[in-house]
Specification:
alpha+beta, two-stranded antiparallel ribbon, STM4215-like, about 140 residues, 7 strands, 2 helices
Amino acid sequence: MIERRLVTQALETLLAAATGKPVATGAVPTSGAKPAEPPYSVLRSLTLTLDGAPLTDLNEDSATTYQVDCVARTHAQAEWLADRVRAGVLGRDDHGAWRHALTVPGWSCYARELALDAGPEDDPGAVIVFYVIRFQLYWTPAG
């Protein structure tokens, strides 16, 4: 069975590389002992489903769902970060390969899709703007 912790770590690494901005899982990223300044991303692990082989078989396919909360100071900054997040997770090169690898030992991510793009909140007076995106990642044993 796929180790969810390894998928989360791989996606956090991908997001940091693709955006060039701080990322943390389930919490505000920190810089030293202080919270990072926006823009940054918060990665949230949502659902895991298994498909195919019985649960006792270690070779079933898996689907993982993640939410990325893009946190920014302005609407434009939130959209900019969300664009970088989407391009990082879903972007392909001219040959159809993923621009950013998701490396999990023993597993291959064969499909990625946008599950939700909620857009930024519409509060012009907000000090912090949130932009919510969800991705579904599909895994099969490598080999």
